[in-house]
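User: Hi! I'm working on a homework problem where we have to compare a predicted structure to a textbook description. Could you give me the structure for the chain below?
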Amino acid sequence: MTPIGARYNESMNTDVYRLPFLGAPLLMPDNISRREMLAWTCAGVAAAASSPLRSTAAELKTSLIPAEAFGYCFNTATILGQKLPLDKEVEITAKAGYQAIEPWVRNIQRYVDEGGSLADMKQRIADLGLSVASAIGFANWAAEDDAQRAKGLEQFRRDMDLVAAIGGTHIAAPPAGINKIAGIDLRKVAERYRVVLELGREVGVVPQLEVWGSSLTLSRLGEAAFVVIEAAHGDACLLLDAYHLYKGGNDFGGLNQLNGGAMHVFHLNDYPDDPPRETINDGHRVYPGDGVCPLGEVLQTLYRTGFRGLLSLELFNGKLWEQDPLEVARTGLVKMKAVVAAAE
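Assistant: Happy to help. Predicted structure tokens:
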């Protein structure tokens, strides 16, 4: 007897059948007759036909996003210009109502250099009801030059140690060091990414491959997906950003091909229709909903692909850096929740 889309399970003395249109397996005794097997299969087809999991394209476009589907995180780049210490950034994030914070590694290091205790900071973050969703660093882990890459890996290890010390579990792995080089063999990038993933397992922090829209390498979603797949590592995952996807010339429809359940954080922001894509830069980012990004489509696509992680507000707008940081953080959270509600 030939199993249908499944393998033999010796421990249960059964053949496990997973039909391609069903998520749950069908368990069949190994002595089942051909007639019985056909009956089971037909029953599975009938169940699939009537299952609420089967949706038409039109139904998918109008699928609802539960209000609690995503968590909300504050990337401290949004108030980077105010040059606040880490403890103040943490306090603002909590007061504004976020569930998590995404600090910059250099500010964690600054906190240590000024005599701060990472153990105390970890406790403070927990006491405020926050988690450290991720962190932003720029180690040259993918550099082409062997010596530079070795130094980059040392820096990445130190960065991850800092993140772990305050309770963080993830860190950005952007194309720093190769962002100005075109034509790099992506298989080599995948090998280098696997190295940092293994390093992350030692520390307990997962490096997330980040797309940079202005980079000459890893500006495209397809490039990043290739690297993640070819790294062939259980912790491999993407860190995506609405602005960066646009800047890199990506079609948001490409998100449909991803396993959203493997992503932990998505950077949520918006951008205006002017300046054009060719000259727009980080400083032009605006609050979600204040620009022309089809965020409703983006969020619905992410939800359908299984993403249930954190939406992290990441802006670099100089005008916001001139404003009260707590008000900026509060406004950002209101705007994020509004675009999620509008996408329902």
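For your comparison, note the following. Residues 1-60 have pLDDT under 50 and may be disordered. The longest strand covers residues 71-75. Good luck with the assignment!
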